[in-house]
Amino acid sequence: MDYKELFSRWSELLPAGSSLKKDLETAAADPADIEDRFYKELSFGTAGLRGKLGAGTNRMNFYTVGRAAEGLAEYILECGKEAADKGVIIACDPRHFSREFSLMTAEIFASAGIKTYIFPDMRPTPELAFMIRKLGAVSGVNITASHNPKEYNGFKAYWDDGCQVSSSVADGMTEKIFALDYFDHRASDIVNRYACGNEPDISSYENIITLDASYDRMYLDRIEALAIHSGDDLDLSIPIVYTPLNGAGSIPFEQMLKDRGFDNFHIVPEQKDPDPDFTSVGYPNPESPAAFKLSEELGRKTGAELLMATDPDADRFAIEIRNENGDYIPLNGNQTGYILVSYILNGHRSAGTLPSNGAMIKSIVTSTLSTHIAEANGVRMFESLTGFKNICGQFPYLEENGLVYLFGYEESVGYAACPDIRDKDGISAGMLVAEAAAYYRKKGKTLSQVLDDIYEEYGFYSEDEPNLVLEGMEGAERIKRMMEFIRKYPPAEVAGRKVLEIIDYTDGYTPAAGPRIPSTNALRFFLEDKETKKPDTWFAVRPSGTEPKIKFYFYTKQDSREKASAVNEAIKKDIMSFIESVK
User: Fold this and answer.
1) Among the options 18, 98, 139, 146, which is catalytic?
2) Which of 15, 10, 12 is nearest to 189 (CA)?
3) Does the annotation count 111 as an active-site position?
4) Pick the CATH number of 461-580 from 3.40.190.10, 3.40.50.300, 3.30.310.50, 3.30.70.100
5) How many Cβ atoms are within 10 Å of 370's Cβ, its own excluded?
6) pTM exceeds 0.85, yes or no
7) Strands 497-504 and 523-527
8) SS3 of 310, please?
9) Are 139 and 75 in contact (CB under 8 A)?
10) Residue range 412-470, pLDDT digits in tens
11) Which CATH superfamily is domain 3-211 in?
């Protein structure tokens, strides 16, 4: 069917009492809107589903979510009774329809004979990931759109290893899901009931189990066990401001700080409680400095040295630090990563707990500075594709080769400090950053000075990560043309520097050390650098897997901060002009 036929079918089959039917009636006057809603189906990838809320095959709604839940249920049942008895854990964030989608998903699983665990309220994504392994569940689902704007929601799927589903598992789930009709499958009555706004009632299901507060305690205990220094090694009076950006991090983050003994922290009051509209922040992405506006205001009132933020499902984490002039400086994900890699390694070394066979993992688009820090401490740094199903997916390789996992991260403010939590975790990252700030403060240093020390020791790095947002069918086609163009006509020289090596990950890539990196749509260009003689000046390009963006990553190492910034800016200018010429 084309998009017009799909629009007619949905208009006919949506129940009369559904708000989705009214949504389509409103859309009928806008052909472009109808096309965008129906020109494709939301793809079910390794991050599950994600999209704007509303009626249509290219939207998050009770029918797209219901079909995904039923397809996942069928996949689990095909794995056998043991899989169904292990059960599925379901969580949600504070977004519009998150709770309703999560309860509907629970009913769909339970009605299929699958044991189902739910939380009484919103919970962080990393707590869900931890609980899958802790309870021995076969799968997990979190209803969340992570850091996306309020118009979005998502269906994030996990498997029994506690990671987001691998490509092979996702393919099996996709086959089941896409074989189903949106309006005619086993659980259609459940979906229609929720779509009509009827109050959910899960009390009749004996196989739906609500997880009480003791399970939250298990998660926090595991995080707090990551502590490297404590007690007299820390200045726990350090003034801190934290914001959960109206998301799921509020309660566990506050409890973690209290448990660790921090007694001078403040939570941004306007952003402490759930708000699906994110009224006080707009775009709830801690990677954006704009998200720290209210934190900075509270920080100036309280004299805070450190500002911390998590996104609505508390898996992403970002910070701002106060410099010598008293100004708050936002750190990008790489810079926070430098501090964490350095603190974890130096902390374990000073505590006498640094293993001789330690290993860390970073994504292919993350700065190489952290590799140099690791190697200087006798720790091996491996690379993976972006996303924590890939970073944490390398844990079996480390175990097979007798290596001890210490830390993993990627530049998009995601950090995984605990091998038992196989996804990025803003709560544990926040604990380690707060601990590091308190440790260095005890020694008379700020995190700003610590970052300067890292640059002085390893060289001055500059990082920039622009992206182009290109929405809709036309945007997707233009992104495809851009990737085809740069492959067909790769630059031989950029900003006066020769391109020495190109890595195209289309067919996968085998690094000098570590497991083979699977196929993905990404390119990486290494440039000549006569000064450093090392491959530390490079850029990468790839389409986003979850958003309508094409993303760029620019890095260089030079002998001064000013030179690094100038070189990186020149490279960025050349490449962005090159790629934007593709219409």
Assistant:
1) 146
2) 15
3) no
4) 3.30.310.50
5) 25
6) yes
7) antiparallel
8) strand
9) no
10) 999 999 999 999 999 999 999 999 999 999 999 999 999 999 999 999 999 999 999 99
11) Alpha-D-Glucose-1,6-Bisphosphate, subunit A, domain 3 (3.40.120.10)
